[in-house]
Write a structure and sequence with these properties.
The chain is an alpha/beta fold. Helices cover about 40% and strands about 20% of the residues. It has eleven helices and nine strands. The protein has a seven-stranded mixed sheet, with helices on both faces. Strand 8 and strand 9 (about 270-280) form a beta hairpin. Helix 1 (about 5-15) packs across helix 2 (about 25-35), helix 2 (about 25-35) runs antiparallel to helix 4 (about 50-65) and helix 6 packs parallel to helix 7. It is elongated.
Length: about 280
């Protein structure tokens, strides 16, 4: 049948092939979103027909995807650490690379169940909320300067039943009144303004203020490393995500600030992605 799931996905995949490296996956995810069904439903019922309304919605979604609009913004959600997070063009799209911060945080805090954690520039809340969910005895403070981002983060925290996290509108540390944190984490802007990747793929549609930082992408990382020393307890840990070519520069920043045990960790693709350090002043 012309309006069957299988036929429409095949046609949409062909339409998207010129603009997407994951055309079939995109078509399937958008179809599942349109039908409000899991992707397994598409394979179980490939001959089922869409209603005229469903067909119209699916066609509109495919048209937007052909123009480059990210799938996550079209569906309004993206998975991170096996949880579904609400997203919008007001926040960055969660990426698997950032899960490295969660892995490292859980390793560092494994010996103590109750911690004070600060998530700077939380966006949709993926880091702070995930740590709050995985460490229910800990207390997480998450901040962002964007009220739109905080609205999404609060919604995600409520939907995921994480009651041990609080949100603060703050330009980095400007409105943070607590100190003595065991762990400070951040996925800050770290892309240089002239980086050609800003004109490619999903990044074109993401909020520029969450992506770009002056001084070749290093200004915000430098600010965070400098100021975090006033908010970490003795022996506290700092974890910052950065670009895969910034390892040497970020380590130099951390060492200049007198952090100890400065170590860079690689993501699943083997790229240097997160640098950690301990604040242990003599």
């Amino acid at each position: 049948m012309a309006n069957s799931i299988a036929r429409l996905i095949a046609a949409a995949s062909q339409q998207l092939s010129a603009t997407s490296d994951s055309a079939l996956l995109d078509a399937e995810v958008l179809m599942a979103h349109c039908l409000n069904k899991p992707r397994s439903f598409l394979r179980a019922w490939p001959e089922q027909s869409l209603s005229d309304q469903q067909h119209s919605i699916f066609s509109a979604l495919i048209s937007q995807r052909r123009q480059g609009v990210p799938v996550a913004y079209l569906t309004g959600e993206r998975e991170f650490w096996s949880r579904s997070f609400k997203v919008s063009p007001s926040v960055l799209i969660p990426r698997p690379d950032t899960e490295l911060i969660i892995e490292l945080s859980l390793e560092l805090l494994a010996h103590q169940p109750a911690n004070q954690i600060l998530d700077l520039g939380t966006g949709s809340g993926i880091i702070g909320i995930t740590l709050a969910a995985e460490l229910p005895l800990s207390r997480v403070t998450a901040c962002d300067q964007s009220p739109q981002a905080l609205e999404i983060a609060r919604d995600n925290a409520q939907r995921l039943n994480t009651n041990n996290i609080g949100f603060v509108q703050s330009d980095w540390f400007s409105a943070i009144t607590d100190s003595g944190f065991d762990l400070i984490v951040s996925n800050p802007p770290y892309i240089a303004a002239d980086d050609p990747h800003l004109q490619q793929g999903d990044v074109r549609f993401e909020p520029r203020q969450a992506l770009v930082s002056p001084d070749q992408g290093l200004q915000d990382i430098g600010l965070l490393a400098d100021h975090a020393r006033q908010y970490l307890k003795h022996g506290g840990q700092l974890l910052i995500e950065h670009g895969y070519q910034q390892q040497t520069a970020v380590q130099a920043i951390f060492k200049h600030c007198n952090y100890q045990q400065v170590t860079t960790h690689c993501d699943l693709a083997g790229n240097p992605r997160v640098t950690s350090a301990q604040w242990n002043p003599s």
